[in-house]
Amino acid sequence: MKTLPLLTELTGVSAFSTCAGFNICTYAGGDRDMADADLRQLERLTGIDRSNMRFPVQTHTAEVRLADRPLDGVDGVVCTAPGMLIGVHTADCLPLLMADVKAGVTAAVHCGWRGTADGIAANAVELMVSAGADTCHIVAAMGPCICADCFEVGEEVACRFPDAAVIRRPGAKPHVDLYRAVAMQLEAAGIRAITPPPACTMTDPRFYSVRRQGRSLTMRTLSAITLSL
Ligand SMILES: [Zn+2]
């Protein structure tokens, strides 16, 4: 399996996005045998057993929960258990990974447009802090997502975002800058160490994109984080 490392300069944390050809997401229709084989690959790569991995069943909410709670219908997970890996599935939406290595708190958050408009990044920071993290020590890295140039939306979507995260040109539909929208929530929460997305999913075939590959796409990029490596 190929992966793109994120947060590489940080010791004590391993964070990465997987490249196309790998899929462990089954609730979007992904093949169960492929998911099982790829989960085995992920176990080999990380040295972590699947019983110590948590992936929410995402539904475009703004809800974030601790990793030891039921994760059906939530879009972010916060973890304090050493040696546990958490991750989110995306294919254009913005995967946000965060860590306070000192406090031993990590987060993996699926920032789609709905969740972002409803403040999911801010919710994730709040839950990290209540789990013992300090915003001064939190570092945030974003995985590959659709860039502002590619993310054309309707006015009903654009109006849910702050002006600074919307690009308007005369005679054209608005574009939403998911990176800016998420970064604004993190900055407002006091986080300064923010690494922007390394690639645009729409134009970079290394990553899955619903906009490029169509709504019937069943595979998702995994962005995951663990403090154990
Ligand atoms: Zn793009």
Report on this structure.
The protein has one domain (3-214): CNF1/YfiH-like putative cysteine hydrolases. The protein has six helices and 13 strands. The chain is of the alpha+beta class and 229 residues long. 22% of the residues lie in helices and 24% in strands. It has a six-stranded mixed β-sheet. A five-stranded mixed β-sheet has the order 1-2-13-6-3, with no helix packed on it. The protein has a two-stranded antiparallel sheet with strand order 10-11. Bound molecules: zinc ion. Zinc ion binds next to loops. Zinc ion is lined by residues 147, 149-150, 200, 202-203.
How are the secondary structure elements laid out?
Layout: E1 3-6, E2 14-18, H1 32-46, E3 53-54, E4 64-66, E5 76-79, E6 85-90, E7 94-100, E8 105-111, H2 113-117, H3 120-130, E9 139-142, H4 155-158, E10 166-167, E11 175-176, H5 178-188, E12 193-195, H6 210-213, E13 221-226
Parallel strand pairs: 3-6, 4-5, 9-12
Antiparallel strand pairs: 1-2, 2-13, 5-8, 6-13, 7-8, 7-9, 10-11
This protein binds zinc ion.
The site of zinc ion has 6 residues, from loops.
